[in-house]
């Protein structure tokens, strides 16, 4: 009995742990090390990236794009503050007029419009549940659940619209929490 494994007869090449066949890792005949055109960059293009380190230097990171102008921040603020005066029409008009001119204004107008549509969905959902019950039973007490929903949405409207207007005035992007603002318009 020996301490060595039995001989390996594999149809797929060398047994595990065996040295590579002769000539493995050597260059093919006719190709010399440092052939012209490889390894050195063209003159005038600066230092080339060392190929030993992967695929190349890291690219330029994405930035916020162009700086916002005073007009952009004003229109973005008006998309929030206008909802307190004329409702969803202010962000809707600003969105359609300014959406191709400024990504910043489009973002904030869409954000304000999405918020108004979300409030409408909240109120219509509660109304769809409460109104039929009030009509069928001829008892308006079933409309009472509308009161807290209306108060919460009204309070949230003031808080989020003022917060959005302040962020827009500072030139910052601000996204409302998803529960309070479903992203329908982008």
Share of β-strand residues:
under 5%
SS-derived structural category: mainly alpha
Q: Helix segment count?
A: 5
Poorly predicted runs of 5 or more residues: none
Average pLDDT reading? 76
Largest sheet: none
Helix content: 40-55%
Radius of gyration equals 34 Å
- First-to-last CA distance: 77 Å
State the order of secondary-structure elements, H for helix, E for strand: HHHHH
In total, the number of strands is: 0
**Looking at the structure, what is the overall shape?**
elongated
Membrane topology: Multi-pass membrane protein
Protein name: Tic20 family protein
Subcellular location: Membrane
Keywords: Membrane, Transmembrane, Transmembrane helix
Protein architecture, described:
It is a multi-pass membrane protein. This is Tic20 family protein. Keywords: Membrane, Transmembrane, Transmembrane helix. The protein is built from five helices and no strands. 46% of the residues lie in helices and 0% in strands. The chain has a domain of 100 residues. It starts with 69 loop residues before the first helix and ends in a 17-residue tail after the last helix.
List keywords for this structure.
single chain; 186 residues; mainly alpha; 5 helices; 46% helix; elongated
Concise structural overview:
Residues 24-35 have a biased composition (Low complexity). The chain has helices spanning 70-81, 83-86, 89-98, 103-137, 146-169. By secondary structure, it is an all-alpha fold.
Write the layout of secondary structure elements.
Layout: H1 70-81, H2 83-86, H3 89-98, H4 103-137, H5 146-169
């Amino acid at each position: 009995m020996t301490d060595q494994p039995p001989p390996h007869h594999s149809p797929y090449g060398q047994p595990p742990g065996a040295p590579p066949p002769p000539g493995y890792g050597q260059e093919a005949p006719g190709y010399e090390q440092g052939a012209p055109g490889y390894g050195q960059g063209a003159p005038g293009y600066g230092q080339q990236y060392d190929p030993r380190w992967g695929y190349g230097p890291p690219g330029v990171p994405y930035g916020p794009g162009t700086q916002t102008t005073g007009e952009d921040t004003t229109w973005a603020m008006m998309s929030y503050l206008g909802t307190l005066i004329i409702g969803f029409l202010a962000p809707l008009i600003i969105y359609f007029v300014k959406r191709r001119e400024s990504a910043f204004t489009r973002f904030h107008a869409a954000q304000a419009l999405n918020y108004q549509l979300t409030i409408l969905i909240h109120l219509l959902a509660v109304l769809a549940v409460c109104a039929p019950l009030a009509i069928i039973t001829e008892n308006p007490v079933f409309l009472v659940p509308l009161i807290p929903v209306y108060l919460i949405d009204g309070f949230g409207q003031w808080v989020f619209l003022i917060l959005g207007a302040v962020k827009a005035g500072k030139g910052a992007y601000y996204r409302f929490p998803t529960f309070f603002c479903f992203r329908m318009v982008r």
